[in-house]
Amino acid sequence: MNTHEIRFTGDGSKTIFLPELNETYHSSNGAVQESRHIFIQNGLELAEKGEVIRILEVGFGTGLNALLSASWAEKNNQPIHYTGIEANPLRPELCFQLDYPRHIGSTSEKIYDELIRCDWEIDNQLSTHFSIQKREVKIQDFVALEPINLIYFDAFGPRVQAEMWDITILEKMYQSLNVGGALVTYCAQGQFKRDLKAVGFSLESLPGPPGKREMTRATRI
């Protein structure tokens, strides 16, 4: 059983460290600023707006990316349906110790509470413009029931979870997206980018968040 440690990161927000894996859930340079940069600024803000934006997150983890997306949905009056996949859900009390609403805004406290406490495997309408279904399932066993507009690929890195970055998974992500839909991730490894191209993605190497030179945005064409 993994031991979870709470650690502060460079922007003052917290993350979870797993000593057994020598891995954190977010960047040690800044958990909140990393998520904003990769998934909101270079993901959600660039997504094609419409009746609803369907987001798939691979690696729901602490719920930080979902919280930022929910806050964005309300601010921009844009409906979002969010599917968060997590094979090993964290205990709610551990998530609440991270105190993310303090960094995002007081109005996000109620949403984060509901985000973490809401039932798994069913749709939950958490606010006017944001609904979520959390799925306790491995990505290998997940089937998207509707085409996805945007994928947050936020699994642990290839060093820790090599199976999550296999080309068969990337092919599955490609097929799950609408044409014009995108996958965004912190990973910018050469083999990973070559595999993305091999399954048909068009790639952009974008400036990374503080402490990381690059990130990747891949679009289904």
What does this structure look like?
- The structure is a single chain.
- The protein is an alpha/beta fold and 221 residues long.
- It has a single domain, classed as Vaccinia Virus protein VP39 (Rossmann fold, 3-Layer(aba) Sandwich), CATH 3.40.50.
- Helix content is 29%, strand content 28%.
- The protein has seven helices and eleven strands.
- The strands form two sheets. It has an eight-stranded mixed sheet.
- Strand 8, helix 6 and strand 9 form a beta-alpha-beta unit.
- Helix 1 crosses helix 2, helix 2 packs across helix 5 and helix 6 packs across helix 7.
- It is globular and about 40 Å long.
- The chain starts with a strand and ends with a strand.
- 41% of the residues are buried.
Features:
221 residues, alpha/beta, Rossmann fold, 7 helices, 11 strands, 29% helix, 28% strand, globular
Question: Outline of this structure?
Answer:
By secondary structure, this protein is an alpha/beta fold.
SSE layout and pairing:
Blueprint: E1 5-8, E2 14-18, E3 23-24, H1 31-41, E4 53-58, H2 64-76, E5 80-85, H3 92-96, H4 101-104, H5 108-117, E6 123-125, E7 130-135, E8 148-153, H6 167-176, E9 177-185, H7 190-199, E10 201-207, E11 214-220
Q: What is the count of DSSP helices, taking H or I runs of 4+ residues?
A: 7
**Count of distinct structural domains:** 1
Within the CATH hierarchy, at the fold level, what is the topology?
Rossmann fold
Radius of gyration from the alpha-carbon trace, in angstroms = 16 Å
For this structure, the quaternary state is single chain
